[in-house]
Design a protein that fits this description.
about 180 residues; single chain; 5 strands; five-stranded parallel beta sheet; alpha/beta; about 10% strand
Length: about 180
């Protein structure tokens, strides 16, 4: 029976459980936590800020801005491009991008209908490639979308770009944000 190797995984981002942070930080591939927000901002985010642990945030964009204002040293990445888009999504994304510690993950692109391209192009305009990163949503996107399908949607959405921009979006930004350094091969 073949053994499944997961050596290609460079970072793990488990759910935010404040009582598990010490345990998380002992794992060599731990690089941050993820959390879905409704309307409340937990005070425990201050512990992430104190420890320098990045936050992958699945929340309405207006809430992202409030988190960034309340915890100005907390590095935040907006999951799923802040979607699905609602309200004044474009303006709210611009407001979130004003905080230099806020980045954005180009993931969940299937949520942006009929095409993710105008949303991704707007994100490129307000964040620039050094604060945007590709996210495949793998394996959560299965069985609807494969990793390859997610990459294809991303590639079509960004359109023609220089190799430097593509390198930022496909690894450079993530390496800097999560502190992967030379761990990317």
């Amino acid at each position: 029976m073949p053994v499944l190797s997961l050596d290609f995984i460079r970072a793990i981002i488990p759910p935010f459980e404040p009582h598990l942070l010490d345990e998380y930080q002992r794992h060599p591939k731990f690089r941050g936590v993820c959390h879905s927000f409704t309307s409340e901002i937990p005070d425990s985010l201050g512990e992430l800020e104190r420890r320098g642990i990045p936050l992958d945030a699945d929340a309405e964009l207006i809430l992202i801005r409030r988190i960034a204002e309340r915890f100005p040293a907390l590095r935040i990445v907006i999951d799923h491009l802040g979607g699905p888009p609602k309200g004044d999504w474009a303006h709210d994304l611009e407001m979130a991008a004003e905080s230099p510690q806020v980045f954005c993950k180009l993931s969940g692109l299937a949520r942006f209908q009929p095409s993710p391209r105008p949303y991704v192009q707007h994100a490129l305009a307000v964040f620039g490639p050094r604060r945007l990163m590709f996210g495949s949503d793998w394996p959560a996107c299965l069985p609807e979308f494969t990793w390859k399908a997610s990459l294809a949607a991303f590639t079509q959405a960004i359109g023609p770009q220089t190799i430097e921009v593509r390198e930022e979006l496909l690894g450079g930004t993530a390496a800097r944000f999560y502190g992967l350094g030379d761990k990317l091969e």
